[in-house]
What we know:
The protein has about 200 residues and is mainly α. The protein folds into two domains: about 5-45, no CATH class; about 50-155, lambda repressor-like DNA-binding domains (434 Repressor (Amino-terminal Domain), Orthogonal Bundle), CATH 1.10.260. The chain is built from ten helices and two strands. A two-stranded antiparallel ribbon has the order 1-2.
Amino acid sequence: MSYKKLRKRFTPEELVDGFVFPVKLTAKQKKEAAEQLAEARKKSRATMTDETKFSLRTHGIRSRITDALQEDTFNPEHTFGYFLKMYIELLEKKRKEFAAEISIEDTLLSQLINGHRFPPDYVAVRLELHSDNIIPATHWLKLVEKQRLHEVENDEEFRKREMPFVNHGEEPKKKTSKLVYRKPGKLKQERTSTHK
């Protein structure tokens, strides 16, 4: 809306209170404004407590997780392990130290980060508690679910291996399948024979 149209609808006082009008700055003024903003940010960071810094950074990770969950398709880079690694790096701790803080073996932590294993539910809850409830357990678990759904939808080899176990009303097959262990990227099955 043009300024003339605004003047017809509002008084000058209402315009001052309700609108921000663009100001054209010279190159020198823009540079000065940028320097002032940088100085203000520097002062603000210097007065922040460690708790405030932790909170802001953790909220940043939560925001990135939320964005990853809202993506229409699964991004293989946005896994549980990726965000867990990012969280640990934010804390500036060694993996062994962090594993001790959430009472898990450092080998389990390594498997989770490197995508060799999906996390048990208790790990997601402990991560929520460790982050002072900033990153909910449900966010961690939704990352895992998104990855699992992607794998089930796209693992053609797994589907081919399962086809013999579906009979469509025909006589049952001689094999049965029992899920033994769930590993990211592969559905590992144990085959057993059944006798009539």
